[in-house]
Structures
1.
Amino acid sequence: MSSNNMVSENLNKIKLSLPKGVTLVAVSKTKPVSTIMEAYDAGQRVFGENKIQEMVEKHEQLPKDIEWHMIGHVQSNKIKYMAPFVSLIHGVEKFKVLKEVNKQASKHNRSINCLLQIKIAEEDSKFGMSVNEAKAILKSDELKKLKHVNVTGVMGMATFTDDKKQIENEFKTLKSSFDELKELESTNHDLRVLSMGMSGDYELAISCGSNMVRIGSSIFGERNY
């Protein structure tokens, strides 16, 4: 089977398995433009990258109706490169990142959607803030001043483990945090997106309430580093 058919078959299979209202982010990091085009031709429009520079290069070469999501760790000094076009930034783990996004978005007269990354995994390597830190940001007067940022939800990554029960507990924790944060009233946040779940655990994530999943290898095959 040509890779072309493989990508579109994998995509269609996954899309059929997703409940209504769940957004599929095709994780295209490390994949060449030609492979992304195969997914595009099969109808996929939302792609996730984890390196800003790589995403900028792909954005320049690919159709302009693609929604680019930044799913990796965000370096503040590189935000300016993606500010003209990025649709959603998944991993905001500090208020100062929101400030920089706001500053760069204002130069392009845009408002950029952001997700707060909540730490749910036990591993130290996973980035993120606590629920209380997220609450403090959402309730702060400082956030209200950022006219070019919309906090539209939260994101979290489960521990890398085979223990399904632990992963499920972490997802449920994030869902209840999401529900709690949604109750807070404010001007520039409207929490609708709960981004959790990847190739290995997205079905479990959806059953726990996720409405955005990040899937790479199940679409494109294993990654070559």
2.
Amino acid sequence: MKVQPFKNTQRIIIDPGEYYVTRRKEVISTLLGSCVSACLFDPVNQVFGMNHFLLAYRFHAHNMPIIQSEEGRYGIYAMELLINDMMKMGANKLHLKAKCFGGGNVLKLREDRENKNTVGDVNVLFIKEFLKNERIPIVGSCLGGNHGRNVHFVGTDYSVFIKKIGDQQERLLENEERRYWKQSIDEREKTQSSADFW
């Protein structure tokens, strides 16, 4: 997480696996490819926050809701951290609204050519299903596609500004996400193998 001065406030830049919650009139920013960010806000109690997550799977069993599946665990954790911290800061879950971004096909993995879900597709499916189950309305979104996005969530009026990133930045983002994605798979496999021992 980085903090930069921005006009008469500050910009908080979050990376994959991070989240940030505030009551101040700040700007929360992130760079998304296959990852998804949920921008949640409670306009009544004036609390808002953003997370940035990438599920450690490329596809899921179609006969099972994704939030009940193995691959949904990390996304659930990322969402619960964000929601719980917002409630600690005074938000009421009944007032929460969401704007969701990301899930672009920037990793270009083998599944794309086999017409299976990509990493971004699975992230998009997850966030829609999670918010529907939690009865948090999505009031704005820009999900899927084939490009990365810069996302800026503004605390004065909860507006979100997005900008498509250029080719050079997208190549850097693809390499960074690939490393992060492989690391999350390794951590999941390590956790599963250690759970097998008594």
3.
Amino acid sequence: MAKELKDLTKRSVDYSRWYNELVVKADLAEQSDVRGCMIIKPYGYAIWEKIQQELDARFKETGVQNVYFPMLIPKSFLSKEAEHVEGFAKECAVVTHYRLKADPEGDGVVVDPAAKLEEELIIRPTSETTIWNTYRKWIHSWRDLPLCCNQWCNVMRWEMRTRLFLRTSEFLWQEGHTAHATKEEAEARAQQMLHVYADFAEEIMAVPVVRGVKSATERFAGALDTYTIEAMMQDGKALQSGTSHFLGQNFGKAFNVQFVNKENKMEYAWATSWGVSTRLMGALIMTHSDDNGLVLPPHLAPIQVVIVPIYKGDDELAKFNEKLGELAKRLRKMGIRVKYDNADNKRPGFKFADYELKGVPVRLVMGGRDLENGTIEVMRRDTLEKETRSFDGIEDYVKQLLEDIQQNIFDKAKKRLEENTFECNNYDEFKQRIKNGGFFLCPWDGTAETEAKIKADTQATIRCVPFGIDQSNPGTDMVSGKPATCKVIVARSY
């Protein structure tokens, strides 16, 4: 086994360290020279590209169009929506000057004090303000609505404690911003996009999620409602994996985005925004991977099948190239992402360990005896099971195997979620059990005071009021003893 795998910390020993090491050893990303920022390496970016492609197609099916807005936002824009600016004020990076000059006392450079900006600029933490300032120019009549835009970009939020993919000062994401003529239409769009995220997470990432609505304390700054999908990691902690916000008319009023409605009266536009980020990479890693490395769902894997010949000499390699090269072509015609690795720069054992570390779902290996017998070895990454099969018809078997692996990975994660979701009505019991992770369905009296006490006592937070739960008789709040207004999911989180 390759040295990298021997050095990979076991999840049972230190889950956090295992994650950090795996991100680096699997060639996904590394720390940059700028504190809190990361360099996404080619293999990691290839996974992100697949996420982009799949989500982008789903967005466009709902009528969304892509746009791009500047990354620099005038500070005055953020001042127009008080709750919004308060929510992001501590995370904003501010541009104050536009030029450097040679340092008269040394060999370096310094900021030129004469190049101070008349108005300071904010590196976007999110784009509601700059987009709604522009929407004012685009929207005049109900005929201009709905306006549904999305941009793929980077944002900057000055984080104090960072971790690759999960929380970095600069990260990649998409942010959708829609404007509507009615409250009902905007609310429907916000929920629609939440379900787009949830379906993507489950169908493509093989990550089961809980869908729900955030408490008032946990809402996005400036939102009337925030809808969320919450995923459970292997250590039982929650990871907020996507959010969609119903913004009401807050931004319409703040930026004076008015339109003539069907009754020929002026009205402020109704808004939504929604986004997912490279945090999904963290969800992918922590939901599926094991002590041997990444486990990637086939629908998202950059390489779904790797073919490795074990050969002696150029004559035998030529035979493999003919047979396995043709197999690779047939697999590609079937829409399967395949790599034929016949390079002689690494030993087969090293290749096997490397592809295992990188989570390639299926590995096909053929040696001299297989060539004679018309067989090929098949290994599936999710279970590490190997079998020898006839070479004839192997492409059809592999195509079905990829779907079986996708389903098995999802079923395993869903079983974990179900087995680690508990109902709890006793606060002393909750305080003990939450230490071991898990999602707890608890009655809540709806007050911020109770919510704050739970967080102070246990470091757990209300993740959401889940959809699909009978809320007709929520019971009694386990903390305050008051009648509960609803049942909520409570968990520790990343």
4.
Amino acid sequence: MICATEAAALPMAVETAYRGIAALGDVSGRTVLVSGAGTTIGFAAAQIAVRLGARVIASAGKTYTDALRDGGAEVVAYGEGLGERVTTLAGGPVDLVFDSAPAGAMPELLTAVTDPAHIVTVTDFAALQNLGVRGTAMNLRYDVLGEYAALAAQGGFTIPIAATYPLENWREPLAVSRSGQARGKHLLIP
């Protein structure tokens, strides 16, 4: 059964991930790179794309590599050389890219596709203006939340919860979030 902390973490990550994967178009039977799969949005996007029938290559660090592989994704390390690692694994350019990595990964992502328009980003807003990649419409998709909450309750979908904190200790998760080392959702509980 899904716990209250998981239920609280689910909506934003799932909605953003779902909207991003939907912006890519039909992913079934296509190779999709999820850049930033170690973020909660990217982790959710990898699961969604696998569920929709894509071959998923996920860039992530060691924290979630096993969980991503268990969920059906092939995992490569992020960072310098990402584009080459991805195209080697894929046997050429990938069909589509969903980017939830911190800004700065775009030069590598552009080497993994044949056209910048095959990339949808939810984090690199400069690339939207300067490089021809796409973003998502701000039409929020609350209709998908029930489906993914039910999957989570059945153990078929997860969002990493790194830690929970009493509400009065709100500064602690804020500091962790700002450090760039959150490693999952940090939740405040009453």
